């Protein structure tokens, strides 16, 4: 088996992911994004086998090959090879896509671990400049983790518009198309926001950032998001949402002064809770996915740091956030993409044909909630890693309080995109998704002055406008629609 087939994972310079299977006579590849099946002669694969080896492939496309054998189970490889030999192309594609994503994660952590470059006079100057509060204002100095993510970009822009000092941090992993993260980064750069490329697990980097800048606040949004992907790559959740969080808190507790921390938990912590609308007082001890479990763990972990070290903590449970510059792994986004391509979309229904519904919350409303949380956060009370008195600990729901069924979501998209969806109705698989979410936001209204004001129709219209503009002609067009 080993002599016949070799697997390697390729990252193309555009950010597209490929999984290749090398056979004696050909090289077979799956493009991760679009399921395109490619087949090219073996000669072209020469010299591509070693990890990190760069080879000129076809046309102007450059690949970086990473050996799969280190990062995936032999049994999985063998099953894929059997699929391929016995002509089960669909099964092969599905397995390859799953594997490609886990490999991507492993590859990225490997490459980011070695590729991170920071430090030096110029770098420090950029960090300071980005974190500087606009003259004449009494703004905050905020470290935004996950700044090139969907929510991180919007929050960073909003802070900057007010005159706050903002420094971003992001590891640009390729859980979804990294070129979208790079486009968001460009947008931030144009607004004078520097996004440091690095991982929240890098203690030296975080310590350095706090040496250079006395951050008053941390807006912690970096995380491994997505419910279903947790079954493919559980480690990435533990790595970012637990280990990374603890690392960040360790650095924050030792910083002088300690910053106040506002961070993103998730509505998914309500898990199997069936009492609606979800209130902060409801039970959250029945997570339905590993993602939810890591967010719940985050709530407990932050409580510990609040209790022992006096860190001021505010956790925000976001409910299905959507909007321009959104996440391609979320249903509203890939429904739009597939509908425009004429592809079939899978619409899930709950037990006994019940509707699946979400409390979709527009990004601008979420941003207002985040800013409200930052503005009302009290100072941390510790110094030198020691608690000096009790510190604030809060948790808020940030939702829209009006759940909409997924069927309704599709019909709004149909009108906006002017296409008819080719729907396949399927029972909701047991892979972590819950059938219904609905936020009670009374607490956030009272304490943060949080008032969501965008309905799904209006918000999706803005999303579709952005989507069409961003993906028209070059795919790289960015910044024109904000
Ligand atoms: N979008 C939603 O509907 C939603 C709902 C509930 C909770 N949340 C939470 O809100 C936060 C932001 O979500 P989003 O939708 O913007 O997701 P996103 O994936 O677009 O943004 C997260 C960013 O964090 C970065 N990142 C991940 N791990 C990292 C690490 N170890 N070090 C440095 N950077 C890292 C990623 O590259 C990404 O750019 C996340 O914590 C997410 O779990 C989002």
Automatic annotation (TrEMBL):
It is an enzyme of class 5 (isomerase). One of its GO terms (cellular component) is Golgi cisterna membrane. One of its GO terms (molecular function) is UDP-glucuronate 4-epimerase activity. The lineage of its organism: Eukaryota, Viridiplantae, Streptophyta, Embryophyta, Tracheophyta. It is a multi-pass membrane protein. InterPro entries: Epimerase_deHydtase, NAD(P)-bd_dom_sf. It comes from Chenopodium quinoa (Quinoa). Residues 142-379 form the NAD-dependent epimerase/dehydratase domain. This is UDP-glucuronate 4-epimerase. It catalyses: UDP-alpha-D-glucuronate = UDP-alpha-D-galacturonate. Homodimer.
